[in-house]
């Protein structure tokens, strides 16, 4: 093998190695960018999960303070009781009004004697 042949093969090896290094650098750069994007997505998802977690805690706290079915049932019973009492009072006031009207008619007809 002559010096020129050795130089030729050395250049071929050099080109192949350089090409291989170029592919390696491209692939690692591509993976680095992909890994950065994945890390950014992980951070965004973590932030969203934290936000949702805080919202859930607030909702659970509000739900604990909300009235139960039993509480609403008691409230409706009390409301119905009040409604019955008001209806009774309305009836009594109407009766008193009718009585007063009869008294006034009697006074108007016969005078205050």
UniProtKB/TrEMBL annotation:
Keywords: Membrane, Transmembrane, Transmembrane helix. The chain crosses the membrane at residues 6-27. This is DUF2730 domain-containing protein. It comes from Pseudazoarcus pumilus.
